[in-house]
Amino acid sequence: MNAHLADTPVLETERLLLRAPQAGDYPAWRDFLCSARGNFVGGGSDVDVGRAWRAFSAITGHWTLRGFGMFVFSDRGSGQPLGACGPWYPEDWPEREIGWSVWHPSSEGNGYAQEAARAVLSHVFSDLGWATAVSYIDAANIRSQNLARRLGAALDRTASRPDPDDLVFRHRPGAATP
Predict the structure, then answer these.
(1) What is 2-67 written as a DSSP string?
(2) Rg of the chain in Å (alpha carbons)
(3) In the sheet where 133-138 sits, what is the strand order?
(4) What is the DSSP letter of 126?
(5) Closest Cα to residue 131, out of 163, 157, 95, 80?
(6) DSSP helix/strand/coil, 115
(7) Antiparallel, parallel or unpaired: β 166-171 and 81-88
(8) Within 10 Å of residue 125's Cβ, how many Cβ atoms?
(9) Average pLDDT for residues 107-112, to the nearest whole number?
(10) Are the beta carbons of 77 and 116 closer than 8 angstroms?
């Protein structure tokens, strides 16, 4: 059986297809989360496959509980999953977030996360009607901080955060630069 989430939007960019997570995405997610590359999203080399499965299930279930969630972005030509990007709002978080992750080192530095994030920001501001969103970024995650700035987000030192060590970057409609 190849189960899938129904009635979820699909976003398209020049190179990417952004869609709800599918079972076939799990191996790429698992490999990412169970490596040092997953450190900034609750993963790391000490994470086992059971925890990776539960985390992937939470990402998938978020769509059902909130009506929005992380998109898996994949190469339009090959369908290869490259990472995740989307709106995220666990119950105990102070604000709705836009998050992203690139799952394999060979996918970094190609502008995929920025391309996906621009499509997601357009979606949340236009289609979902949000007036603002934040990105909670670990103070050591310089690459994500730089991406947030390229997306037009500004550091918001007064915003609440789920982790007191995170930096908060605020996104507003129309702030992204080409």
Answers:
(1) ----SS---EE-SSEEEE---GGGHHHHHHHHTSGGGGGGT--TT--HHHHHHHHHHHHHHHHHHS
(2) 15
(3) 11-12, 16-19, 71-75, 81-88, 97-102, 133-138, 166-171, 154-155
(4) I
(5) 95
(6) helix
(7) unpaired
(8) 19
(9) 92
(10) no
Q: Is the pLDDT of residue 19 over 70?
A: yes
Q: Is 10 left (phi over 0), alpha (psi -120 to 50) or beta?
A: beta
Q: Which positions ≥6 away from 39 have C-beta within 8 Å? A: none
Q: CB under 8 Å to 105, separation ≥6 — which residues? A: 37
Distance CA 91, CA 66 (A): 10
45-72 residue pLDDT tens: 888 899 999 999 999 999 999 999 999 9
pTM exceeding 0.90: yes
What are the structure tokens assigned to 49, written together?
């496959």
